[in-house]
Design a protein that fits this description.
The chain is an all-beta fold. It has no helices and 23 strands. It starts with a strand and ends with a strand.
Length: 286
């Protein structure tokens, strides 16, 4: 595996790439958009094409720990498919922690101006079940859940850290349609509740220490985790195969001289783009 630094973008959380546009989010719903069509390995600091804040961020704002484009379009004429951003731990200190919750947005572009509209919310309906989502003592350090979408197979993968007995549990569901769910007046969109009966597949895998950004490529899940080098939770990339229910690769970024918190990962035309929390952007060749 080779890793090469190519540019610098805004610090932040995860993001996603569609066509030639890279979307980088922070934990307050701010998004910075970059045109990477002519991106060269110049190590320059890229100038944002535009900036916007996610719709209805005043009432529900994702941490954007995991961000991914799906396979369905809100309108057949839209340029971008639906965008999925997870809440993660943004409401950790609230009565309703919104565990297992993901916001779905329509992204629109008018020349170089971008905007979003909240169009759906997806929730895992068994986040308080200690036999499925939690440790038996229900004292998991991060019980909030990450999400990725397999666009080719139409699958919605959710996974969560279970501290006892130190595993990461994966669940696969059919990706909900935009028309699914029940209308909620507070948010003005349909809410989909995924129940135990909706689980298509599940398995346990190696413990992911503090899950970060994630994506899929050719059916496999690419999951980032950890903080900075020297912390007990090292920055790591794992590749998980949901078909075989096995981890195929685990790489510590420090072995490549990368020491910052891992946040962003996605693929464009078969190329893997990786970004850390400080804004360094890399290409990974496997």
């Amino acid at each position: 595996m080779d890793i090469e630094h190519i540019a610098n973008i805004k610090p932040g959380q995860d993001g996603a790439i569609w066509n030639n546009y890279l979307f980088r989010f922070d934990d307050q719903g701010n998004c910075f958009v970059y045109d990477i069509k002519n991106l060269k390995e110049s190590n320059e600091t890229l100038k944002e094409l535009d900036w916007f804040i996610l719709d209805k961020a005043q009432i529900i704002v994702p941490h954007c720990n995991s961000v991914v484009f799906g396979n369905e379009y809100y309108d057949k004429n839209d340029e971008f498919p639906l965008l999925y951003c997870n809440i993660y731990n943004n409401y950790a200190n609230s009565d309703d922690k919104l565990k297992g919750t993901c916001c779905v947005y329509r992204i629109k572009r008018n020349e170089n101006t971008f905007s979003s509209k909240l169009v759906q919310i997806i929730k895992i309906g068994f986040v308080e079940n200690e036999t499925l989502w939690n440790s038996e003592n229900r004292e998991d350090v991060r019980p909030y859940g990450n999400f990725v979408i397999d666009r080719e197979q139409g699958l919605y993968h959710a996974f969560t850290m279970i501290d006892t007995p130190c595993i990461t549990r994966y669940f696969s569901f059919k990706l909900p349609k935009i028309s699914d769910g029940t209308y909620d007046e507070k948010y003005g969109v349909n809410i989909v509740i995924l129940t135990e009966n909706d689980i298509e597949n599940s398995f346990d895998c190696e413990y992911h220490r503090y899950i970060q950004g994630a994506c899929t490529n050719k059916g496999k899940i690419y999951s980032l985790e950890g903080f900075y080098h020297g912390n007990e939770n090292e920055p790591v990339l794992r590749i998980i195969n949901p078909t075989t229910k096995k981890q195929e690769l685990c790489v510590e970024f420090s072995s490549f001289g990368l020491v910052n918190e891992p946040e962003f990962i996605d693929f464009k035309d078969g190329t893997c783009y990786y970004g850390d929390g400080s804004g360094n952007l890399y290409i990974i060749e496997f």
